[in-house]
């Protein structure tokens, strides 16, 4: 497995979920089972841990280290691990980067600091990433939030980051504007030192991929990694007919996962895995709360529409 500064984030990269017991402690046995399920899918490039999908905001440093340790044991012989860096301060971000590299991670997904919602400058963004890069020589993935959040990086800031920090190898692009998304794909992947764009626009994945993204990094890959891998291959092969058929299967599930409130997306994915018999329970940590039975029923209907479940509740093959 690639665990070096030579790893290039690209292709299909699911972000896995983190199961909990009813007492809100980590369910390590279920997490191991979940990792084995996802890693068995053909066509994946890496797995992401300690990110939104694993409820990283509610996990302690020790818990994040344990998540990395377990993932290394279960996945490390097959796929590289991308470790999220969720921190409001740059010094803490650097500490996480050092721990992640020491624990065997292959790349770092850098979330924007929350204080940027109050305003940011290019100098602030560059200082944050330089602090992380000084602590680890692993490839960095910039998590590009929507500009409206205040945490997204304007084009000039993003250009400075790529110019001044050579270990940035990819951008996880959550840009909701199609023209901006396309501009970033064209500009970043055509640089003299190309930077891959990894789509995270899972609610409109086919549209995003046809713009030329060199990969995708998505929490819904915790449930439908096989469909995503097939879609990515079909788009790369310019097989529109197959891509549209796959998208017709993905669409009902994506619509269910990414409904309002958006924050419940991974909550819904846990419920989907329970329905599919892949998790014993769907427990989330506060401030998230369990979704209502009516919404769970809609998720079940979406799984049936996607051909992942038959009308009697029997799990079907996704292929």
Report on the architecture of this protein.
- This protein is α/β, with parallel strands linked by helices and 319 residues long.
- It has a single domain (11-238), classed as TIM Barrel (Alpha-Beta Barrel), CATH 3.20.20.
- 44% of the residues lie in helices and 11% in strands.
- The protein is built from 11 helices and 8 strands.
- The chain has helices at 28-39, 61-75, 90-102, 122-135, 155-164, 178-189, 205-209, 221-236, 240-257, 265-275, 293-305, and strands at residues 11-14, 47-49, 81-85, 107-110, 140-144, 168-173, 196-199, 215-218.
- Strands 1-8-7-6-5-4-3-2 form an 8-stranded parallel beta sheet.
- Helix 3 (90-102) links the parallel strand 3 (81-85) and strand 4.
- The longest helix has 18 residues, at 240-257.
- The model has no long low-confidence stretch (mean pLDDT 96).
CATH homology-level superfamily: Aldolase class I
Please give the alpha-carbon distance between the first and last residues.
26 Å
Broad structural category: alpha/beta
CATH first level: Alpha Beta
What order do the strands of the largest sheet run in, or round the barrel if closed?
Answer: 1-8-7-6-5-4-3-2
- Poorly predicted regions: none
| CATH topology name | TIM Barrel
Descriptive tags:
319 residues; alpha/beta; TIM Barrel; eight-stranded parallel beta sheet; 11 helices; 11% strand; globular
Give me a quick take on this structure.
The protein is an alpha/beta fold.
């Amino acid at each position: 497995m690639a665990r070096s500064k030579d790893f290039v984030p690209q292709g299909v990269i699911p972000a896995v979920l983190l199961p909990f017991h009813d007492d809100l402690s980590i369910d390590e046995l279920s997490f191991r089972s979940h990792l084995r399920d996802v890693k068995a899918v053909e066509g994946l490039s890496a797995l992401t841990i300690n990110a939104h999908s694993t409820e990283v905001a509610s996990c302690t440093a020790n818990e994040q280290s344990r998540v990395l340790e377990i993932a290394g044991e279960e996945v490390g012989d097959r796929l590289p691990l991308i470790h999220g860096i969720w921190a409001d301060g740059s010094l803490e971000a650097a500490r996480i980067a050092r721990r992640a590299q020491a624990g065997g991670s292959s790349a770092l997904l850098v979330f924007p600091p929350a204080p940027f919602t109050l305003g940011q400058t290019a100098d602030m963004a560059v200082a944050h990433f330089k602090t992380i890069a000084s602590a680890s020589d692993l490839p960095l993935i910039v998590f590009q939030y929507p500009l409206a959040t205040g945490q997204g990086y304007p084009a000039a800031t993003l250009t400075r980051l790529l110019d001044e920090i050579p270990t940035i190898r990819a951008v996880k692009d959550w840009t909701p504007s199609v023209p901006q998304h396309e501009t970033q794909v064209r500009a970043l992947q055509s640089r003299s030192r190309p930077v891959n764009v990894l789509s995270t626009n899972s609610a409109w994945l086919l549209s995003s991929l046809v713009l030329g993204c060199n990969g995708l990094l998505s929490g819904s890959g915790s449930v439908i990694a096989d469909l995503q891998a097939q879609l990515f291959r079909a788009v790369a092969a310019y097989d529109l007919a197959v891509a549209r058929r796959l998208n017709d299967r993905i669409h009902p599930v994506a619509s269910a996962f990414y409904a309002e409130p958006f924050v419940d997306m991974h909550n819904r994915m846990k419920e989907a895995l329970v329905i599919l018999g892949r998790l014993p329970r769907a427990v989330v940590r506060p401030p998230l709360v369990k979704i209502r039975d009516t919404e769970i029923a809609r998720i079940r209907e979406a799984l049936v529409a996607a051909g992942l479940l038959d009308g009697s509740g029997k799990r079907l093959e996704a292929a």
